[in-house]
Each structure stands twice: as C-alpha cells, then as structure tokens.
Amino acid sequence: MRTHYCGQLNKSLVDQEVTLCGWVNKRRDLGGLIFLDIRDREGLVQAVVDPDETAIFGTAEKLRNEFCIKVSGVVRARPESQINKDMATGEVELYIKGLEILNSSAPLPLDFNQENSEEARLRYRYLDLRRPVMNQRLQFRSKVTSAVRRFLDDNGFLDMETPILTKATPEGARDYLVPSRTHKGEFFALPQSPQLFKQLLMVAGFDRYYQIVKCFRDEDLRADRQPEFTQIDIETTFMDGKQVMAMTEKMVRNVFNELLDVDLGDFPSMTYAEAMRRFGSDKPDLRNPLELVDVADILKDVEFKVFSGPANDAKGRVAVIKVPGGASMTRKSIDGYTEFVGKYGAKGMAWIKVNDVAAGIEGLQSPIVKFLNEDVAAQLIERTEAKDGDILLFGSDTKNVVTDALGALRLKLGEDFGLVEDKWAPLWVVDFPMFEELEDGALTPLHHPFTAPSNMTPAELSANPAEALSDAYDMVLNGCELGGGSVRIHNQDMQAEVFKILGISDEEAEEKFGFLLDALQYGAPPHAGLAFGLDRMVMLMVGADSIRDVMAFPKTSTAACPLTSAPGVANPDALVELGIQVIPAANNSEEA
Amino acid sequence: MRTHYCGQLNKSLVDQEVTLCGWVNKRRDLGGLIFLDIRDREGLVQAVVDPDETAIFGTAEKLRNEFCIKVSGVVRARPESQINKDMATGEVELYIKGLEILNSSAPLPLDFNQENSEEARLRYRYLDLRRPVMNQRLQFRSKVTSAVRRFLDDNGFLDMETPILTKATPEGARDYLVPSRTHKGEFFALPQSPQLFKQLLMVAGFDRYYQIVKCFRDEDLRADRQPEFTQIDIETTFMDGKQVMAMTEKMVRNVFNELLDVDLGDFPSMTYAEAMRRFGSDKPDLRNPLELVDVADILKDVEFKVFSGPANDAKGRVAVIKVPGGASMTRKSIDGYTEFVGKYGAKGMAWIKVNDVAAGIEGLQSPIVKFLNEDVAAQLIERTEAKDGDILLFGSDTKNVVTDALGALRLKLGEDFGLVEDKWAPLWVVDFPMFEELEDGALTPLHHPFTAPSNMTPAELSANPAEALSDAYDMVLNGCELGGGSVRIHNQDMQAEVFKILGISDEEAEEKFGFLLDALQYGAPPHAGLAFGLDRMVMLMVGADSIRDVMAFPKTSTAACPLTSAPGVANPDALVELGIQVIPAANNSEEA
C-alpha cells in the first residue's frame, strides 16, 4: 500500500511522489494549513495539507490523534528556517495530494504525554507499544535475537526445539503444572529450562545446539522476574569450559559491536572466591570502584569484641569499605547505612572518619577509636589507603553476613556518591564451589546437580565435597548476571557420586533423572553449555529499568495479564474432563 | 578438541594430521588390523589401527559400538581397490596415532539394524536420534528455520514473542490449562495460536511480525498431530491478501530452492469452490490426475432414483471419477471401494465399466446400465472423455457426502493405480466461504471469526452471510495444507457484525474478545497474515511419514513421553498450593 516508511523520507527523495501509511501523531492547524506528524515504526514525518486541495482538506479536518491514514504526495525540502534538527526527517515534509482514512480512533485511554500506571500500560499494551521508546525497544530486541542467531548459525549451531510439555519434578515447587486429559490425574510441567533435553541432544550427537526459548518459573515476581522469560540456550560437545566461554564471549561482543557500536574488549575473569572477597558478590559491578578490604588480621587483638570475636572465628569476617570523601557524612546518613546493612543481618556498623592521616590515631574520629591503638590505626590506614576526608565503614560478623551486607552497601554507596562509571564492565566469574552448605550442614548444588567438578575423580570429589570447585562460569555485565553455564557431568559414576553427596537416594535419582543416568551409559560425550537471559540482556542494552519494558506482553507483579484478564475461571466441564476440581476457598488451607 | 568433523575428511587433507571426536559406528578386525567407522553429525569416516602401535591397539581392542572416542592421526588416500563410493569420505582413511576413550557404552537397547517400536524409539530418543537418517532430518529442520528467518529478517519482519501463559477461552475445549498459584482457582491456557496477540502487535504499529512458535492443542492425536507443534507465524500491516501471498510464496520458493535445489515455480491459484468441485477437497493434491466430474444434469431424468433424486435436489450432487484402465477392476476390488466410500457416508457406489466406446450403451458394463439410455450413455462418455478399458465410479448423495467420499476415493485410487506423479505440486486455494452451515442451520467460521470478508460492508455481509466469501488463502503442497491465512477484520463494526452472525452475544464477545474489540477502536490498521505448520513443511521436505520423525522429542499417540515418563503424578502439596485437587477415579464421571 505504501512506497516508503515515514521515517525513511529524506532529501534524496525531494520532488518524488511517495505514499505513506501510518498514524496521526499530532495535528496542528497553522496559518490556514493543516500540519500532520505521521508516525510508523520507522519514525515520524511532517506532512502539510493545503486548503486549496479542498476535498483532502475536508478529510484532514476530521483527523484526530491516532487515526490510521494513507497519504500520498510530493516530498519537499523544508525552507532553511523550518528545518527540524531533532527529527530524522526534519529536512523534508510531504505535500499531501491524496488522503484516505483507514481507521478512526476514539480518544486514547492512555496519555502519551505523561507517565501511565503499570496496570493501564499493560491493559492497553497495544497503545503503550505505539510509544516510540517502547516500539524501538521491542524492535531492538528483535535485532538482538537476529544477530545472536546469525552468529550461532555461522558457527555451526543447530536451532533445535525441546518440549514445553514436560515432566513435573516431584520437588518442583516452582513448576507450572498442566493437567493431562488423556492421563487423568497426572500433570505435565512447563520447563524451568531445557537443561536435560539439551544434554540429551548432545548425547544424540547434534554437537552444537542452541535455542531461543521460553522458560517458566512460578515464583514471587521481582522487577526482573516474569512467569515466562526467554533464554538463549546453548550446548556444545567436545568443547571445554574455556572454549565455550571464548565462543559465547565473542557472540556477546559481536552483538554489542553490531547493535550498539560498543567494543566490550576481552572480558576479564575472576574467581568466585575473589569476587566474594573484594566485592561481596558473585556478580560484581566493576563500574563501581569501591571494594571490601579484609582487616581481621589487624583487629584480632583489639579490646573490642565486635571486632575481635569474628576476627578470631574461622567462620567470621571483618572487612571495611573506604568511601573517598565520605567523612562529610552526617550522623543521620551513617544511621541510614547502618539500618541498610541491618537488612542483611548486620547487627551494627562501626565507622571511622579519617580527618587527618598525618595525625595518626588522633586524626581519626569514631566512637570506637578508644578501642584501637596507634599501630592498629596505622595499619588500617595503610591497608585501606585512606586519605584525609575518607570514611571507613566496617562489617564484622559471620563471613556470610559481612559479605552480603558490605556487598549490598558497596552498591548503595556507589550510587549515592555517584561513583559508578558510565561504561560497560563485562566479567567472567569462574571456579565456583560445587556445593553450598545449608544451615543443617547438608550440601546443595550452587548451580545444578549436572555441573561437573573441576579436574577431579568421583573418589576425590567424595573425599572433600565441600571444598570442591566446579567447572562453571557466569558472564556478568555491570553487576547483572547475563548468563551462566558449566561443563556437564558426562560420566555415570560421577553423576551418581554427586547425587550421593546431595543425599539423593538411588530410587529418587532413578525417579527424577533416570533417563539422564540411562543416557550417560551409552557413550555420552563430554559436553558443556551456557544459557543467557535474553530479557535481561536486552534490558541492559536499551537502558530499561525492568525486563517488562522489553517484553511485548508481560505479566503484572501478581502474574496476571490485565490485557486479556488472564488467568481466568475455567469451564467446569473442562475441569471434569481433566479429572481435577478447584478446592473451594473454605477448604483451602492456604486461605482458611 | 578436534580439528575436523569426521564427515569432512577428503583427499585435500591427505598427509595432514587431524583430530576427530565421535562414536564408534562399527569395528572390524581384519588381517591383524582394526578398522573403525567413526561417526559424528557430519558423517562417517574409516580409521585404521596398526598392531605396531601397541598401546593404541590395546585400547582399540576394548572398543565396542557407540563408544565415544577421540582419535588423532594422518589422513591417507585409500588404494584404488578400497575406495568406497557409497561413503562421502570413501576415498580416504585415517591412520590412527592417538586414541582416547572419552566414554564407554553399554550394549544399546535399540538395534539400529532393524525397525524399533515407536515406544522404544521415543524412550531412548537420544539413541534413535543418532541414526543418520534421524540426525539428518533434525539438522535439516534447523536449516529450514534458519532459511525462513533469514528471508523474513531480510524483508523487514520483526521476530517478536507472544505469551505462552494466556487466557483460557470459555469454550476452549482443546485448551491446555495451567492453574495459577497467585490467583487460586483460576487458570491460564496455552495458546492454540498467537492469533490475537499478533493482531495486537499490528495495532501497536510493528508493521511486520513473525515468530517461529510453539502452539498447543489438547486433542486426539493423529499421525500428523502433536500436543505441541510449531508454527511459522506471520502478520503484516498495510498489505492485502495478494501481497501476503506473494511474499510468503516467495519465502517457500526460496527455502525449497536453497535447501532442496527444487524450483517450485509460480504457484497456481484455485477457488475453494473449484477445488471442492474438481477434487472434493480444499487441499487438492495436484500430483494426482483424477478429477470429480459433475453429471447431475445428464442424469436428472433417468429412471434410477439413486441418481435422479440427488440430481434434482439443490443440496444434492452427482459426480463421477473416471479411472483410466480401471475396467479391469474385479468385483471384489469394487466392493472394497464401495466400503471405503461408505466410511464417508456414501450408501453405495454405482459403477460403469467402459468396454467399448464405439458400441455406445452396448459397450458399457454395469448393473445400472438398464436405467440409462443411449443418449445418457453418450453424454457420460463425452463428459468424462472415457476410453475403452476405463471405469466410471459414481457418487450420488448430498453435496457434502459426494464431495467428501469422492475426494477421499480420488486419493485412494491415485495411490492404488500408481497415478500420483513424483513431483512438487504447490497451490493456493482462495475465496473460501466466510461461514459453514452446521446441521442446526447455525453458521460457524470456516477459518476463525477474525477473518475479513472479501470486499463487503457490514450491511452487505449481514444481508447474505451464507454466501459471503472471505479474504482467506491456504497454501497447499502435494495435498497437504502447508499454511493458511487471511486478511483480518480491522473495523470494529465489521467484527461486531461477524460476532452477531455467529450468534455470539455482546456479553460473550466482550468476555472472550473484549480486548480485541477495544483495540479495533483506536486506529487499528488494515492487516493480514498467515501461519505455516513448520513440522509438516519439514516432514514433506525430508519425505518423512509423520511429523514425529522431524521433532526431537515428540509425544506418543496418547500424548505421553516415554523418555521422561511425562505426564506424572504431582506433589500433593503443590496441588494444595494451586488450590486444586485430583478428582478420585470413583467420582470421575468419565471413568465411573
């Protein structure tokens, strides 16, 4: 119906006849003329209706915002004085010689000139998505998937589909369940990831797999969580962890280069241990220069139990964050940070203002200075490289509390003091522990139970599982986990050993993962992979605050869709056919 | 880990050192040497272990089929006498200088040398998919999606995702339901297609959308149906039906050209009416030369009620299929076909063997010849262009019965008589009726209720809905519907009129499709689209018999997965959390 997109008109088309289709973005009546800004997905262009074109002018007078129209006319250069440099098409305008109203529009329930509520935006999502910022974000998302696919296609990866209707895991509290009609009383589950299927594809010999695929998790939603989200899922055979990292790093670098003209450079790599020690996080934001500095050795003999207790405890940690120029902090501000770290379990927060380094301990200001001596003070200043005007904020508690609290405090201070550099800071985090210890001493996998340990036999793993490192790797960008992966266990004995360490009985393993254990018997190849969160990657790339802003039809924070009113009540007959019934609210233990 | 794929070795690599990873396809011990066929996704290559390489030979003696190994060695040209022309790598072999067993294999539960049961194939799918024929089919599928995506990307289509957790439609008997945890007692449904969402994306101004997307239908399964299947889903704005057809035809032509080196040429187009008249099907297989020939006008005055009844009834039909050379059919064979058409409601099947055209009615052989006269006989022969030795098979009943029965008979005869040409026969079927009349006289949409009528106002549609044609189009290939689409209704009044004709009340329309009706108010653009069945397209292209053979992990005909044992019993706690319970079998009306 059209010859060009609105956003494509430029000086090279002057004097040409073109036809456009789009929406009336704005109409202005000025000096007897009608000016229209016409919008389509590629942008805006100004069009002019002359009153001499009587019939067209009559139609144009009916136009309101968001009418869908088709116009034809001649492209004209605008006079120098009317050039609009803020508009990509601002050097030209269309002199309208034909106008057809394709559809009228009622006044919009959303006001594009103001912030609308999340509820309203989602209810009228098809209008919210007309806003150029949203339209461009979704278009950008499509460009990202396209670039990712091209890279993977060019590198021999096969785009393969795995099932959405799959096995409900007995413990899968976060699984969405789907009742089966043919097998009454039984359920499918929607996959939290295609992990096991992609491993089976490697056993089947497909060598390199990828899929941009929906995954599902029924959990409390946060800003960056949705019931359904999208993964770039990758698995390879006969490649080790380093090769997978190199390949996927190249992919991400290419995508940033191609779509943002940003060179991410070679990604640095850091062990999990170092990340936790220096940044209190397994996904450190390296744009933030603040670090955690361990000082237990300096403080273990002071007469202040808050310090000396944890400093002498193998499970304790004493660390400090130095905030340059932070000595200007008010008492109220310090109290605020103390309350903040309290949320992470810290029972308090010691602090020292460094007023005058040259004065030694006399130059320090703090309620706790009295517990220190000149030597300790000197060591603290030396270790933290504190300067006049800095403040030292202490965490002293169990290792976990200090690491979590100071890790979070570091991010907050970075924001509050404007220390976060405006750049891209990618990072690999490697050498994760295989297991985390739960409070009851049981071990749980830090990633998932199919992750291979680094260079170890089953016997070696069994001997000291708590210390074992895995062959896993996370890609972090600006403090967000973009993706994570690992070398997988391809050896049946090793997989059985891991299940044993996790306290999974043979029966349970057989029940839950029998098919994987079976598959490992038949010449399963070494394999490794990685999965990226596409939504989060796009969110970071376009600078959105929430993954909701890069999804066409997201759910609300209560996992509902205001647009279609989903979820809804089901037809009772359908439930009978499925062999299930809704528990009346009175019998519902959760609501009773 | 490797330098080449097994299937890549050729004469250009002679004398080079290479490293391969793969599976032992076969081991033969011959003349003191060990020969291995090593397999990876790209093919097979022969490797030789010399007993002089003592250590390697010792390892090689342990190898069994399907062991996963890594080998290095030198590529050698085979002596002329040993060249294997059936093998892509048959001119060379690898002289092994290094051998590592990456994983051993237990004896396989599937015998690759024989046909295995569907159950066994699906249970050990990761082994079934190692079979070169299956491996190649799935690889081919990946090539198809890749080619489709490239075409659509290059034509300005945006790859956009629509929700999987969506609204349960009140009448959606074929919806898979998903109980919501946050909204207890309520359900999401898995989409049967993204139809409404893609229309909303057009309203949002994305202009050209596509998605290769899973769709779900909970229904009895046939050879070419699966609970989850994949659509190439396309929608465009400001394009009419012809433009969508041209664009998608070009896409399919490109894919066939690129992947099969087949030129499908320009697709012919046929109206629905003609397709039903000549072929008794809305998806005629044009490789089959047989046609239905209408003869009611010839037979309406004969003294044979079986003919004259339907011939004089506006809702009746009398038609004939001429089978060249079919006069040789035995009585038993004719009885077989009579029984066959019976399945489609035909109460019998009249037939005439044409033994001698020159002899007129005397040359015809049939129990019903006595009801005909010379003139009728001559007209039948002229109309059907029958030759000596042909047979005429009659259908005479209601229009629907004759069309269905002879449409099916035509296909069966084509197969039985070897008449189906070995070629690709694409076709567009167009000008569908808007509605079908149900037995109770109610109208139901032939496609879906968002399909636009051809060139009609709401008032014109209302005046004679049963005769209205829609702006819909199906792409047919070799008698299979590859895809179907239509221009959609973008006008609110027209959509309301269609709902009215379908007997959908305002309340019901509001409840089910309120969001679509809302969206049409706000400058909804003209839009049109199409959806292809990817599974079926790939199945046709690779010559498989079932879509199961082109899906990595399909379900059985009872919608179960023998590999993972899905569906399964859910954790009772999870059901309580979801606010649902399984109806005990005794209370279950279906099973009681």
Automatic annotation (TrEMBL), chains A, B:
Boundaries of every Aminoacyl-transfer RNA synthetases class-II family profile domain copy: 138-554
Keywords tagged on the record: Aminoacyl-tRNA synthetase, ATP-binding, Cytoplasm, Ligase, Nucleotide-binding, Protein biosynthesis
Gene Ontology CC annotation, any one: cytoplasm
Membrane-spanning parts: none
MF-aspect GO terms: aspartate-tRNA ligase activity; ATP binding; nucleic acid binding
UniProt keyword Nucleotide-binding, yes or no: yes
Oligomeric and partner information: Homodimer.
Name of this chain's protein: Aspartate--tRNA ligase
Organism the protein comes from: Psychrosphaera ytuae
Gene name in the database record: aspS
